[in-house]
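Students often ask why inverse folding is considered easier than folding. One informal answer: many sequences map to the same fold, so there is more than one right answer. In these notes we will look at a single instance of the problem. The structure comes first.
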């Protein structure tokens, strides 16, 4: 049996904990894994806990008792998130990103794993104590962001479809009104996607008037689910009336002027209090 040095144990423990966010891990798992005394493992965990707190990388929660253990909760501070999003914002005001209908080209941002992971960690930080059971998104551009958020919350993510797929079995379908175009559209979710009475976090890439998010909220009522919250990468301020309130956004699209080729972006609702 390998004899672990403390430095080796610390590196391995950090990797073990961070790859299992929100999961309760019994101390006996570590004592058996490293063939070390419980007192040594406790000292190691204290070092990791202090380092995580010092660097603003989350928290380590210890639960006492026979069924106790340790749980890693990923988190980032609002101060760090604000600085990171401000850097992101600068590249989004490039006029070449203008698309018809007052939209911006965002696909390159939402296809970079490092960027999407950071966004997911920011969102998960806001809901880390909310008891989220599932993350829900609408196909297709919101999928990477929803996946990243669910990964940090360590819960499943579910995709709402615009049309019924045979491979998903029976579905629940509803009609909803698009907030921007005022057209009636359809969305569906497989009945097996989630059990009743669960708490769901809605995640999407872009919100104009909020018709899609409102539709997902209405769809969740068919599952007797509770909406824990909703968050988007960017929301537009162009819509005269929002169909939903209290949506957390990282960025806001304030102005789009195709004639002058000007885009104005500001920090989102997440940073209104900091």
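Output (designed amino acids):
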């Amino acid at each position: 049996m390998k004899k672990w040095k403390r430095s080796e144990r610390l590196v391995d423990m950090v990797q073990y904990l961070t790859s299992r966010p929100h999961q309760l891990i019994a101390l006996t798992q570590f004592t058996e894994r490293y063939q070390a005394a419980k007192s040594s493992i406790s000292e190691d965990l204290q070092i990791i806990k202090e380092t995580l707190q010092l660097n603003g990388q989350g928290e380590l929660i210890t639960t006492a008792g026979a069924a106790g253990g340790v749980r890693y909760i990923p988190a980032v501070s609002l101060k760090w998130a604000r600085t990171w999003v401000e850097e992101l914002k600068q590249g989004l005001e490039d006029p070449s990103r203008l698309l018809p209908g007052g939209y911006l080209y965002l696909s390159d941002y939402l296809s970079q794993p490092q960027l999407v992971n950071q966004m997911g960690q920011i969102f998960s930080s806001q809901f880390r104590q909310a008891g989220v059971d599932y993350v829900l998104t609408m196909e297709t551009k919101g999928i990477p962001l929803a996946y990243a958020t669910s990964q940090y919350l360590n819960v499943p993510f579910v995709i709402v479809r615009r049309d019924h797929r045979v491979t998903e079995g029976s579905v629940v379908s509803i009609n909803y009104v698009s907030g921007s175009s005022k057209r009636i559209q359809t969305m569906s979710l497989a009945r097996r996607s989630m059990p009743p009475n669960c708490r769901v976090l809605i995640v999407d890439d872009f919100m104009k008037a909020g018709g899609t998010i409102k539709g997902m909220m209405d769809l969740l009522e068919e599952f007797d689910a509770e909406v824990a919250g909703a968050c988007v990468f960017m929301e537009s301020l162009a819509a005269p009336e929002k169909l939903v309130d209290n949506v957390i956004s990282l960025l806001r699209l304030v102005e789009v002027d195709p004639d002058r080729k000007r885009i104005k972006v500001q920090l989102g609702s997440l940073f209104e209090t900091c």
